[in-house]
Design a protein that fits this description.
Number of domains: 1
Order of helices and strands: HHEHEEHEEHEHEEE
CATH topology: Cyclic Phosphodiesterase, Chain: A
Low-confidence stretches: 1-16
Number of helices: 6
Shape: globular
Radius of gyration: 18 Å
Distance between the termini: 34 Å
Mean pLDDT: 92
CATH superfamily: Cyclic phosphodiesterase
Number of strands: 9
Strand order of the largest sheet: 2-6-5-4-7
CATH architecture: Alpha-Beta Complex
Protein name: DUF1868 domain-containing protein
Largest sheet: 5 strands, antiparallel
Helix content: 25-40%
Length: 245
């Protein structure tokens, strides 16, 4: 497994991006504590029985004990997931981020209900398990996240087709929909690292990458609601009625 990119080259200056990474003052406070940031989403949780979960638990411990831990806020292992389709965030109400068939001023609860009604009758037709490989780390810009890729072109096609069908059903098409990068978030940056910290964190992550399995599987997608980035509450699994689950 390789690092996805040269993180140092991609690191923005604080002056260009603001004093803090984008997760601060929206999803997190400057001290790393979580802020309210409600919404809904369709995800696959990483099962606690997965080989990747066990390996990430060791990685989590290393990041927690690192001298660099002041730079980021770690997400609870129970929240680890891969997003299948992004859903909405209550604080982001713009065309492309909110369903086209619902007013921009509609309460989040109304959006939750609309999505639940549509998804309860949706045939996912794309049956699990979903087979993914670890393709490196996402650039260290706003967080620490594994970049994921389907293991085959056929797996890529069926996951992309599922995303397209969900977009049509929910009347929601995020910018960059076609180029969406599957990932698994581990932490949010709460301050920009300096050059020395950037190099040290990149080196640590590259070292820890070798302890992760090359491939893993995920189960059925779940329609979830969330109040913040620490917990994603499953409402129900997306079903394939003709296949019995």
């Amino acid at each position: 497994m390789q690092q996805s990119q040269d993180h140092k080259e991609r690191q923005p200056s604080a002056g260009a991006q603001g004093a803090f990474p984008t997760g601060v003052h929206t999803k997190f406070n400057v001290d790393g504590s979580v802020r309210p940031f409600p919404g809904n989403t369709i995800i696959c949780h990483l099962a606690a029985t997965s080989r990747l979960y066990a390996a990430l638990s060791s990685l989590y411990g290393a990041l927690e004990q690192s001298d660099l831990s002041e730079l980021y806020s770690l997400l609870p292992p129970s929240s680890w997931h891969m997003t299948v389709f992004e859903g909405v965030c209550d604080q982001v109400r713009r065309p492309g981020f909110w369903p086209a068939d619902l007013g921009l001023d509609a309460p989040l609860a109304e959006c939750d209900g609309l999505f639940a009604d549509k998804l309860s009758a949706f045939d996912r037709s794309c049956d699990p398990p979903y087979r993914l490989r670890i393709a490196g780390w996402q650039p260290l810009v706003n967080g620490i996240a594994l970049r994921l890729a389907p293991t085959t072109s056929g797996e890529e096609t069926r996951l992309r087709h599922l995303r397209d069908r969900l977009s049509d059903l929910l009347q929601l098409r995020h910018p960059g929909h076609e180029d969406y990068v599957f990932h698994l978030s581990i932490a949010y940056l709460i301050r920009y690292p300096n050059e020395e910290q950037q190099a040290a964190l990149s080196a640590l992550l590259f070292k820890l990458l070798s302890g992760l399995p090359a491939e893993f599987e995920l189960g059925a997608p779940e329609f979830c609601r969330f109040d913040d980035m620490f917990a994603f509450r499953r409402q129900f699994f997306l079903q394939s009625p003709a296949r019995g689950g």
